[in-house]
Amino acid sequence: MDADTYSIDITVTDSYGEAVTLTNETFTINQSADTGKIYVYDIGQGTTDYNNDLGIQSVGSGTPPSVTSYSGYGFVEKIEDGNLGDSSFTYSWGSTYTAYLLESGSNGSTLAEVLDNMDSIPRTNSNRFVILAPSGSDLGGVPRTMTDAYGGSTVDQYVLEAATDGAALGSGLGTTEASNIHKLTLGSAHLGYTDWIMIGPQNTIAGSSTILLDVRPSSGSAP
User: Which of 19, 76, 78 shows the shortest CA–CA distance to 200?
Assistant: First the structure.
């Protein structure tokens, strides 16, 4: 049944056959929050050019900005064409590359909580990785813009944090990363959502065996 308040008549009969009817009794069904699912992908390659690595042909308007992919080529095109959620998939981009699902999850009411509950995400190289989150779900804390510094006041602006090989977020020289954010529109809905938000570090991050991820409001402070 859908979330709503419903009315019913209830007849109760005791062991002696006496009956009483309760008329127009109401009960409420609450719809649980639908936060969708978060995916973290190793895209299978990594150079100094973010848009080129992801297979982004052009960037449009909007907040976050939408992207146009290359027809038949690149990581983004495969995500748009139905491979989101796959444990791995290959794509053509000059050579053949394989993207791997590093982690997925839905345990949390905000994007930061879901990433935190992923804990240390296994990672074995310096390939680019991206975070994909549904747009329009009940998940809170989904960025609309990204920056690489704290102390701002822009609503829905976030900072990406990444720590490798067991380091704590915010430790050492800091784990704040310059990052990019785009909106992808799938050819058909995945888990009920057609629009997805993609976030990834602007620069490649050195090879590591694990990585911790977080997104924090730019109005706050580093971990």
Answer: 76
Q: What is the pLDDT of residues 159-179, one digit of tens each?
A: 999 999 888 887 545 689 999
Whether 14 is in a domain gets the answer no
Q: Which two tokens stand for residue 126?
A: 């310096």
Residue for token pair 């629009």: 195
Return left, alpha or beta for 220; rule: phi > 0 is left, psi -120 to 50 is alpha, else beta.
beta
List C-alpha distances in Å: 45 to 62, 83, 102. 27, 17, 14
Please provide residue 50's backbone torsions phi and psi, each rounded to the nearest 5 degrees: -60, -55
Provide the residue range defining the domain that includes 188.
38-217
Whether pTM > 0.70 for this model: the answer is yes
Residue 3 forms part of a structural domain: no
CA distances from 209 to 95, 111, 120, 205 (A): 25, 23, 9, 12
Burial grade of 103 (CB within 10 A; 0-12, 13-18, 19 or more):
buried
Cβ pair 80, 184 in contact under 8 A: yes
Inter-residue contact 173 to 120 (CB < 8 Å): no
Is 139 within a domain? yes
Instruction: Please write the tens of the pLDDT for every residue from 96-145.
Output: 999 999 999 999 999 999 999 999 999 989 999 999 999 999 999 999 99
Question: Structurally, how many domains does the chain consist of?
Answer: 1
Residue 198 lies in a domain: yes
